[in-house]
Write a structure and sequence with these properties.
binds zinc ion; 3-stranded mixed β-sheet; 2 domains
Length: about 230
Amino acid sequence: MSQSFHLFQLQKIDTQLDQGAARVNEISAKIETDRRVQDQQQVVDNASKVLASAQAQLKKIEQDADTRRIKLEQCEASLYGGKVKIPKELQDLQNEAAAIKRSISTLEDQQLEAMISVEDAQAQLNVAQKHLAILQAEVTHENAVLAGESSALKALMDRLKVEHQAVLGQIDQNFYDEYERLRKNKRGIAVASLTDNACSACGTVLTPADRQAARSPTILFHCPSCGRFIYAG
Ligand SMILES: [Zn+2]
């Protein structure tokens, strides 16, 4: 087999290795940068804080109302206990009881609103938690599929590396050095094929004399335009 054939084989293997490595990197970047679960966890944490604050507000209102109910009982006990007999003092106690009742009534309205706020916050938290569970399941599944693809690619690449070594053994060192240099400078493609009388990499149409030279089993032909090796088959 000619050197151009072996170089072409090597190019096919190395192109597959390049594509495999690029996809493996893409997969790990995709898994690492996926913030969907963390973002939704943040939504859940925020909803929990809103709920805790609504519950604390409700509790405070309930405690205030309880304190005032005790105060009202004490006030009414004095009022109806028979110990206070002076009309002015009785009048003061009546006024005080009325004021406490009004403030209890206000607090009861606030309590109702606070209870609705707690229910709303609880509902929001439930929705957020449900969404989080769905996302976690989705992401776990997607990552398992990606990890499977990645390990299959790595296994393929291990086999390709063995093939690379085998083909390398068939290539003269000076051609391989040139191959590597071209790979570096020509975006990974050192060997082009002859397709429809043109270089498959840059599209330059070869003259009949060039095509004949490219088909020669003894010489290595370079594309006159891009400089890559040409494998004519
Ligand atoms: Zn070319």
